[in-house]
Amino acid sequence: MPEASSFVLETANQPLQADTISVAPPKAEEVLIEVAACGVCHTDLHVIKDEVAFPKPAVLGHEVSGIVREVGEGVTHVKPGDRVACSFIMPCGRCRHCDKGLEDICENFFNFNRLAGQLYDGSTRLSRNGQDIAMYSMAGHAQHCVVPSRAVFALPEAVNLLDAAVLGCSLFTAYGAVKTVADVQPGETVAVIAAGGVGLSIIHLARAAGARHVIAIDIDDEKLALARELGATEVVNSAEADPVQAVADLLGHGVDAAFEALGSVATVKLAVDILDDGGRAVLAGIAPAGQTMDVDITKVVRRKLRILGSFGAPASTAMPEVIRLAAEGKIALDKLITHRFAFNQTAEAYQLLNDRKIQGRGLIETNPELI
């Protein structure tokens, strides 16, 4: 069983700790990957802060690119040596939801991985001194990881291997929100609340989908400036102006689609309040456990508003699309990735994320020599 350097979450509200773990070989329909890079995502921060329950000790990291080193039985679409990126949702392909094409709500992914930190045989591929270590998705904050094959996608040479890591969550999640759930159409009006990694990706993809107005809303002027670079047609600093009034002044009414990318009571309420009649609010931000919506029920009913949840996307269709967009130069990965860290700076990266010091997406360059 090979060993790999990693960062382990031992207990909640403590920095990730550098350690060496054992990584078991891939089983049937699994792939062993040498990690090139892994994104720094707010969802992992929720786990670190115990705002989302998860077993510990654990290796986090769910936005991965790398090189295939070994494949399990039944894997034919990738082979050792292939450059790949992985979706954070790892569909089993067999549950009742996957059978319907609803891979983004795969029952086995949530029941085995998100609740128990395991893969789909009920065990983890990680251990330390004989003790199991939980896997958050594929556990990408390590030099090697094991990924179910349905979440592994080959990369064309036109896509930078390190930058491709963010395709598997930030862009993947945004694509699901913009295309799969909201189905943004040319000429529509869009607001995006919270211009972090996912919010910026939503802005980028909504503009690419042909939205006439893409209004970025945040309290950080640096993030709003980056939002403009990525396609926002207008920006609103909600610490300085009432965003509902600002949108009404701009458009004469609300927006067709509002995307909430933070996960808070206040921003979810804003997403609903900012809608035009018949509009749709798409909630893509993960909130701490126990948070509930504060919305005017009569307003939702009377104005025929829709409140839609969006968690990732169907991997088999969305990942090939975001990879294609990246290969064609239609996704500005170099602008979305605003902070790059060496592998030994993994814990520091999450502290900076917690302190709101990362404007776009942070990226851990685990093994840049793989390029």
Describe this structure in words.
The protein has 371 residues and is of the alpha/beta class. It folds into two domains: 3-169 and 313-370, Alpha-Beta Complex (Quinone Oxidoreductase, Chain A, domain 1), CATH 3.90.180.10; 172-309, Rossmann fold. Helices cover 28% and strands 27% of the residues. The protein is built from twelve helices and 18 strands. The protein has helices at residues 42-48, 96-99, 107-116, 170-181, 197-208, 221-229, 243-251, 265-273, 297-302, 315-327, 333-336, 346-354, and strands at residues 3-8, 17-23, 30-40, 58-59, 64-71, 83-86, 126-128, 131-135, 144-148, 152-154, 189-193, 213-218, 234-237, 255-260, 275-283, 306-309, 337-342, 361-365. The strands form three sheets. Strands 3, 5, 6, 9, 10, 17 and 18 form a seven-stranded mixed beta sheet that branches. Strands 13-12-11-14-15-16 form a six-stranded parallel beta sheet, sandwiched between helices. Strands 1-2-7-8-4 form a five-stranded mixed beta sheet, with no helix packed on it. β15 (275-283), α9 and β16 (306-309) form a beta-alpha-beta unit. The longest helix has 13 residues, at 315-327. The chain starts with a strand and ends in a 6-residue tail after the last strand. The model has no long low-confidence stretch (mean pLDDT 96).
